Amino acid sequence: MTTDSLAARPRFRGKTRVALFAYLLVAPTLLLLIGLVGYPFFYAIYISFTDAVVGNAGHWIGFANFAYLAQNPSFNSSIANTIILVLVTDGLKLLIGLGLALLVNQHFRARGLVRSFLMLPWAMPGFVAFLTWRLLYLPIGGGLSIALQSIGINIGIVDWLGQRPTAMPAVIVATIWRGFPFWFISILAGLQAIPKELYEAATVDGANRWQQFWAVTFPGIRMVIIVTALLSSIWTANSFENVWLLTQGGPSDATMVFPVLAYFGMQTQRIGEAAAVSVATLPVLIVLVLLATTLMHRDED
After folding, report:
1. Non-local CB neighbours of 50 within 8 Å, separated by 6+ positions
2. Domains of the chain, with CATH numbers?
3. Interval 123-156: pLDDT, tens
4. 283 — phi, psi (to 5°)?
5. pLDDT tens-place string over residues 147-179
6. Which positions ≥6 away from 176 have C-beta within 8 Å?
7. pLDDT score recorded for residue 282
8. How far, in Å, are 107, 109, 201 from residue 115 at the CA level?
């Protein structure tokens, strides 16, 4: 074999060259993700183990920040409040979104107009939406008090956002109103992907509407519900506008949640403690992701 024939031989085989070319195409996106997502994520974890403050990188203190949070009543309140907020709001959003999606999926006049109207809460900026709800909850002259009085319910002056029994329910109602369109449009898309032939076959077999729902509709939208529940749970657990604009975590930590508690840590310039609050939510979010992934794999199998 001559030297010229060795030089003419390609350095990489066909499949290897295709793989290298694919990696080269992905490399810019991968580097961008590492810079914009990976580095801040792991740096926040590192900061949570330090006594960093604004203007000072701090020193490694181990789990001292987490030990302090465990003894902080506001942190304990934020755990319970975040769990309640996520479970109650997502459960009611599912019921409302599913009911509206089943209704709007039927054929009737002005169906497109109704669909657009139902999407308005999601299209409205969160800042505007929750400030509007704050006006509705005013104890004197608020829209809710006026509406109750107009239908003959006189409960006097109620500070909906300023007392513990009503503060969290008020936040929950506003959060549901803001977020149910996401469930509605996701489930509606899943309903429209179900073949009509399945309903026709179920009707021929003598199934009523309720049986058709459990045999055809629910299996067809189950994957959509799982993914929507995962995304909505993460967004609700990390939501800040709804609580801050309505109650700022009060009264007496009645509506304190993780994002608001972390924001208070940033206001005091204790970056390490604020990062520790955010890092403390990671195990819960990881469990949610693993649970949703397991359910999706089970459906595929």
Report:
1. 57, 58, 59, 60, 61, 272
2. 12-47 (no CATH), 73-300 (1.10.3720.10)
3. 889 889 999 999 999 988 888 888 888 888 887 8
4. -60, -40
5. 888 888 887 888 899 999 999 999 999 999 999
6. 89, 92, 93, 96
7. 84
8. 12, 11, 28
Distance CA 239, CA 133 (A): 16
HSE value, Cβ hemisphere, 13 Å, CA-based, for 288:
20
For the chain, what is the radius of gyration of the CA atoms? 26
The pLDDT assigned to 6 comes to: 47
* β-strand partners of 60: 50
Q: In the block, which residue shows the tokens 């599913």?
A: 98
Q: Which of 179, 178, 184 has its CA nearest to residue 130? A: 178
Q: Per-residue pLDDT tens for 228-257?
A: 998 999 899 888 999 999 999 988 899 999
Cα–Cα–Cα angle for 24, 28, 33, nearest 5°?
A: 130
DSSP 63-130: THHHHHHHT-HHHHHHHHHHHHHHHHHHHHHHHHHHHHHHHHTS--TTHHHHHHHHTHHHHS-HHHHH
